[in-house]
Specification:
With about 260 residues, the chain is an alpha/beta fold. The chain is built from eight helices and seven strands, in the order E-H-E-H-E-H-E-H-E-H-E-H-H-H-E. The chain has one domain: Rossmann fold.
Length: about 260
């Protein structure tokens, strides 16, 4: 199926590694014009090499989406280069693990800025532009922790819940303008972030790293970690005009791990 993404203008934040990079790779292979963004110029240069030659444009812009000034600069860059955005993938690094009562106000504030205010600020810039063109597709990369809280990840479980509720509220406001907004909930997906979480768990529990990984895999009905491309393929469909009627949803891509009621 042709996703009709050729020449569509799409921004991917947190796009230099892992799930964000996989989204950029799939979108590039579909011929979209892309701006990929993350904090590090160096990571962006590497990502550009990994994506390689493709039919569309591929621009990069360094921005930390926990910071309002960086988001404003990213918005200005996109408008200068493309004039508008057909789609955005909102993605950033996950917050640290830690005991529920153990995070300082500074750490909570950073998590709120990275995972909630980034979503508010990016949509405040791009949704009005999408309204003018009567087309827009937005994806937020969240976590299954919003459906079934993950022990040790209270910052992620809590703050992402607020971002999801914000987007659900916004999606109803703008669906009539052909702007569709969905949240994707990765389960254990094979990236640097997952490897680092497993190392932290092994250090904190004194368990062998291989044991930690084997226990995690055995808790997943599919029996393995997800490939970032699994999630990116769904993101590409939801970002395309082939997605003509799905909005306001939170969709787990988790090999069946979350066991919330149907
Ligand atoms: N992998 C999993 O199993 C899993 C499961 C559930 C949820 N998630 C969530 O899904 C998201 C992506 O996960 P991942 O595994 O792909 O993570 P990852 O491998 O750590 O990659 C994160 C990406 O985001 C960029 N980034 C980090 N902080 C940023 C910021 N403040 N502003 C802009 N870019 C930022 C990083 O590049 P720079 O360092 O260059 O900024 C990198 O490109 C995370 O929020 C993660 O918590 C992942």
């Amino acid at each position: 199926m042709d996703l009709m993404l050729k020449k569509r203008k799409i921004l991917v934040t947190g796009g230099s590694k892992g799930i964000g990079l996989a989204c950029a790779q799939v979108l590039a292979s579909e011929g979209a014009d892309l701006i990929i963004s993350s904090r590090s110029e160096e990571n962006l240069a590497t990502a550009k090499e990994i994506i390689g030659e493709h039919k569309g444009e591929l621009l990069t812009f360094a921005a930390d989406i926990s910071r309002k000034d960086d988001i404003d600069a990213l918005g200005e860059y996109l408008v200068t280069k493309f004039g508008y955005a057909d789609g955005i993938v909102i993605n950033a690094g996950g917050p640290p693990m830690g005991p529920v009562l153990g995070h300082s106000d500074e750490i909570w504030t950073h998590a709120v800025n990275s995972l909630l205010m980034s979503v508010v600020r990016l949509t405040r810039i791009f949704v009005p532009l999408m309204k003018e063109r009567k087309f827009g597709r937005i994806i937020n990369i969240s976590s299954t922790g919003v459906k079934q809280p993950i022990q040790g990840l209270v910052l992620s479980n809590s703050v992402r819940q607020a971002a999801g509720t914000y987007l659900k509220t916004l999606s109803a406001d703008v669906a009539g303008d052909n702007i569709f907004i969905n949240t994707l909930l990765p389960g254990a997906t094979d990236t640097d972030r997952l490897a680092s979480l497993h190392r932290t768990i092994a250090e904190r529990t004194g368990k062998n790293l291989d044991e930690v990984i084997a226990a995690r895999k055995s808790s997943i009905p599919a029996g393995r970690f997800g490939d970032p491309v699994n999630l990116a393929s769904l993101a590409a469909f939801l970002l395309s005009e082939r997605n003509g009627y799905i909005t306001g949803q939170s969709i787990a891509v988790d090999g069946g791990q979350v066991s919330f009621p149907l």
